[in-house]
Structures are given as C-alpha cells and as structure tokens.
User: Fold PD40 domain-containing protein from Candidatus Limisoma faecipullorum.
Amino acid sequence: MRKVFLAMLVLTSQLSFAKGGIEVVSDNPLQLPASEAAYSPVISPDGEWLLVTSNAMKGLQKYDLATGQLETITTDNGAGYNAKISNDGSTIVYRTSEFKNRLRYFSVKSVDVATGKTETVVKPTRNVSAFGAVNGTALAVDGNKMKTKRISGKKVEYPAIAGIVNGNLVVTRDGKSNTINPVGKSRYLWQSVSPDGKKVLFAVPENGMVAYVSNLDGSNPVRLGRLSAPEWMGNDWVVGMVDKDNGEVVTESVIVAVRADGSDYTALTDGSQICMYPSASMDATKIVYNTAEGKIHLMKVKTTK
Assistant:
C-alpha cells in the first residue's frame, strides 16, 4: 500500500494541470449516432475530420467535424490499429490481418479520400514493420524493403519512417533500414517520425511506459516522462495518456501533453473519466480522444512558444 501511495505522489508531482505552455480552451463530446461506440480516433492533419474504429479495431469510419457525417471507409479486421492519414489529407493507409495455417499475416491497404478507392500496397506477409503516407503516396516497409504506391499527386521524395522489428526501433530512410535503439535494448512501442522528418518519438517500459524523442539516428534521446500511446502534436509538442490498470482493464487514464524537449509536462483532463488514445492536428490546436465508454471528445487547446 505504501508503494502505491508513493507512486501516486510521484505521478501527481509530475503533472501540472492545464497551465504553463498549453491551455485547454474547450473539451466536448462529438455527436456521433447514439448506437455508435467509437475508439482510437485519428484526426486529419488539418483538423477537419477524423477516423474512428470499433473496440475490436475492426473497420474504419470517417467523421466530418463540420457536417457530422459518418462514412464507412472499410470493414477490414485490424484496420483501426494505428491507421495513418497522409500529411495532405488525401490518403488513408491501414493494416489488416488474417490467419493462414494458424499464423497471422498482414496486408497494407490505401484509400483515396476523394474517391474512396482502395488499393493494396503490400499483399499478405508476416514482415510488415511500418507504414504511412505522404502527399498521396502510400508507404510500407516489408522486411527491409520500402514499398510504395502513388494514389494521387506527383512523385515524392520518400520520408523517413519508423517501425518495430522484434522489439527493436528501426528507421527506414533513403531505402535503407537501420536499428537505432536510442535507449539501448528494450521493448520499443508507439514509434513515429515528426512531421518535419527530423525526430523520432517512441515509448519503452520503465516501471510504466515512458516516452522519448531522439534524432533519427538514435542520438540525443530526450526523456519526456511517463506517457503511453504518444503522438506528435506538430513538431514541438507530444500528446499521450498516463494510464493505470488492474491487470485486466484500464482503471484510470488522463490525457497529457509535453513539449518535445521534455518541458511543460501537463495534464489536460482531470481524471474524472477514463480518457485514452489521443491524436492531434498538425497545428497543435485540436486533440481528439476516446473515453472507456466509446465516446469521442474534441479538445481545443492553445500553446505558447
């Protein structure tokens, strides 16, 4: 009991509530159809629409913040796990799974937002380590090979993309994949490259999940503090959740933002409900997240430089 009490004191001392470099302007639930429970929202870079999925990560639906229209993108299994939206908002990329001879295989698919057309980027394989999209081109790393499919727009220079291989953090750029492991051997999770392509964000277990930001080659890792499911909020901020569980289900979770240099570690929700899996717009003004009951919230924030 004393250890639990001390742990809570440490967590409380780390958190400042909506002050310093970031301020909550508003936080309201979205009016999805009453029958719809939604989870793991991903907001578009321009903050105009978002993707949501089911509790089982099956399928993707697109919700327009201006009109309230909910549109089914796919019903594929696993599509809701870490779905990506390209920086220009033109392309959705997701991973779907299937079992063959008791082994799980993954495919990567892309969707043209304008037309709804779906194409396969990677056929079923056991070696997908990363996927994403940039300026209408879908990207995926299959083994150590970068695969691409241009959905719209002009040919682009492929950005760095981060993935996990056997628990190691791997960055692929210029067609080459390198294991970087900025904090040494660990179990790396929730990896992503910053929108400007200069930094990589990740989390590792350290008596709870802890987030870091490093250079693309793994140098200069900066500890951000306790944070699960971290996501970039522009290039200067990171948003994630600080959660607790009882071994079976999450019992507490708050949304936390922190600067990419590790300063201004700030709780954005007060703990009165379980708030999870945030996603932020490119301009760092909007955050979406889901509650344990499957309600999606839109939070508007203001940051200072």
In short: Residues 8 and 14 are 10 Å apart (CA to CA). The chain has one domain: 16-303. Confidence is low (pLDDT under 50) at residues 1-17. Residues 16-303 form a domain with the Neuraminidase fold (CATH 2.120.10.30).
